Amino acid sequence: MGFGQWLGLLVLLAGLLLLWSLKGVLLVLFSAIVLSVALNLPVRALERHWGWRRSWAFLAVLLGLSVAVLIGSVLLAPPFVKEFRELIEKLPQAMNTLLELIDANYRAVILNIYGSDSGLPESLAELFRTRTDVGNALERSLQGLLGLVGNLGGGLLKVVFVLVLAVMLTAQPKPYQALAIRLAPSFYRRRLKVVLGNCDSALGNWMVGLLISSFCVAGMAGIGLAVLGVQPVVANALLAGLLNVIPNIGPTISTVFPGSVALLDSPWRALAVVVLYLGIQNVESYLITPVVMHNQVKLLPGLALLSQFVFAVLLGPLGLLMALPLVVVAQVLVREVLIHDVMDRWLLGSAVGAATAREAPED
């Protein structure tokens, strides 16, 4: 390698190091882009189906969202907050009930399996409580989790920045897209425009499918909990729909709250809640999602779970929330840039070179 090549490699490594040091800022920027894509969906629908000018469609969407947020804050927020507090207060009591249930049956299970219960403590629940008060520990953990959420949501400046930037990107997307394209080499600008359009379409399709899926999950959870008589129905149904945004992890967390409340009433009702949520997730995974995502965005479940783990470790809670949008965009970039523009052309060039060599006359 010559001096110029070494210098280019050093510049590339320095650029990657700079990007990694700015990963938090880039993740916030990506969050604004995702929100902008979501805002663009109804704006484009008004443009295409109703023939509205973009400025009027954009103002109508902003006004509609503002009214929806205001109505939701007035009608849904107070009962949701009240019911969610009740859920949090009942979780330690539910854990103690679960320990008592285990304590009442574990010796009989061990005796049936091993034929002897010698050496076991008299009370499994007491063993746990002597080491730590499970109810208090759980309550402190939940308070810490809520504190983390509060800190994330309390970063008012970051939230305002994301909202303002998303609104600006939605109001005038073409200048920002043109700026991003001009940063690429001149020979690749036309192709990059196509790639960015594919990323935008993939994100939009994924969001529409996720929105429909979340509404269906919330509706099925509300109906099922109402039939089982597990209260509060509204808070648990909304939590099921909201946490459906985080596949694999979200549905598991959403089961904890109604399952804990049902456990205070009876173990069989808690089991019925678990079966209900397992049924909802199977219907969502094998019926709703394939129908909604047909010919749109297909993500392998293992890849989605791995991406959530990796981005949560590298980028924190916001990385976990943005894991699937990042994977959707990365999937398009790998397919269009790495495979189509690099690997396929490389293989084609190799094949042409080999054919030319075979056809060349021998000296």
Automatic annotation (TrEMBL):
GO biological process: transmembrane transport
Family recorded in the similarity comment: Belongs to the autoinducer-2 exporter (AI-2E) (TC 2.A.86) family.
Location(s), subcellular: Membrane
Lineage: Bacteria, Bacillati, Cyanobacteriota, Cyanophyceae, Synechococcales
Transmembrane stretches, start-end: 6-35, 56-77, 145-169, 206-228, 234-258, 270-289, 309-334
This protein's GO CC annotations: membrane
Record's keyword annotation contains Ubl conjugation: no
Bilayer topology annotation: Multi-pass membrane protein
A Pfam family hit: AI-2E_transport
Protein known as: AI-2E family transporter
Organism annotation: Candidatus Synechococcus spongiarum LMB bulk15M
Swiss-Prot/TrEMBL keywords: Membrane, Transmembrane, Transmembrane helix
